Amino acid sequence: xxxxxxxxxAIVRLKELSKFKKEVLVLRIRVTSGGxxxxxxxxxxxxxxxxxxxxxxxxVNQDGVCAITDTLSxxxxxxxxxxxEETLMMSQFVISNPNSEAHCSCGxxxxxxx
Length: 114
Fold this sequence. Notes:
Blueprint: E1 5-6, H1 8-21, E2 25-33, E3 39-47, E4 57-62, E5 65-70, H2 71-77, E6 81-86, E7 91-96, E8 100-103, E9 109-112
Parallel strand pairs: 1-6, 2-5
Antiparallel strand pairs: 2-3, 3-9, 4-5, 6-7, 8-9
């Protein structure tokens, strides 16, 4: 099964955030229906110690950082790369998804390949 991968920038940023908060933070990634293209990504930072864990959680570890997703979301994001971008307007984690064939103009929602 293809996994989820982090860029070096995403790894550095997650480590910085964990150091700043003085706890291990994980990036939770969910895919839900919605947005103009059909599906949208939901990112949240959670403390690994206090993360609401359930039986469907899938942990992806790379170079000392962790992402958590669920089995349904993983079907839509397998093989994706998580990056971190900073611009003058915002800073955010973003996803490059090989399973997506189209996305809305703002990039917050996507359509799955047929």
